[in-house]
Prior knowledge:
- The protein is 46% helix and 19% strand.
- The chain is of the alpha/beta class.
- It has a 7-stranded mixed β-sheet, sandwiched between helices.
- Helix 2 packs parallel to helix 11 (273-288) and helix 5 crosses helix 6 (181-197).
- The radius of gyration is 26 Å and the shape is elongated.
- The N and C termini lie far apart (87 Å).
- The model is unreliable at 1-27 (pLDDT under 50).
Amino acid sequence: MTAKMKRREFITLLGGAVTAWPTVSRAQQPVRMRRLVVLMSTGEDDPQDATRLAAFERALHELGWAVGRNLSIDYRWAAGDPDTLRKYATELRVLAPDAIVASGTQAFTAAQQTTRTVPIVFVNIVDPVSSGFVSSLAQPGGNATGFLMFEYATSAKWVELLKQIAPGVMRAAVLRDIGAASGSGQLGAIQSAASQLGLEIRPLGMRDASEIEHGISDFARGSNGGLIVTASVPARVHLKLIIGLADQYRLPAVYFGRVAVDAGGLISYGPSTIDSFRFAAGYVDRILKGEKPSVLPVQAPTKYELVIHLKTAKALGLEVPPTLLARADEVIE
């Protein structure tokens, strides 16, 4: 090969290399990291939340989001303390997330009071329209959308289940969060169903452990009593105490979700909250890819679970009707 040919080949190769360099450079551009903040109204030791959040992260991963590669997640736990939630909410200005997931009314309220621009996906909220969180379920408007915990008609089901599993119950104490708008809605549905079944209703507050202990112990002085534990952050935070008091005073109790039966409660009926977190991951994905929460409809649960704890029923001297057992999604022996 002559020197002239070698020189020509070298120039050709050099030109090809120069042409390729921008392509290689583009391929090595760092992946944009998106930031997500998850505000939890409950405590970090809540056993069901670990399962929920595992399903949430798994769903995000299936949609192409990997923590540490293109997504970072900051978790904040309030354990039912509004002051803690407000403190975490103020951190949002510093964290500057691309989106927020808020679990529970307290967490969502704290987030929305902090920002009206950052997209928020909520879960475990009962009535976002009456609470003024969204304009409508079909067209939320604003910066928030999400998934309902359940509809008020579910509360009436708790009354029916209490009479079915403990027919002798004539009085029911209803543990509710007096400070939550959804607490009044749940109580109204319960009272309407109770009047049709001849059941006397006594509302009890859940502001703290002392109020719960005093309320249940005072109610238990009467006979033929039972408990209905409505869905709220205080109910989750004080769940072990409530179950313990129900056992101590031998009160048949119906709970808002299976987390209570897993912890030894008698019977529960409520939505699959794991599904809610899984679906929330889908909304986070769509928002991070450019869709607006204002046009993503608020969705109601599609799957409800009836769970019964036979050992607890036996301890209370209750014989669970075969028809109720047949309807149960799970029976814990």
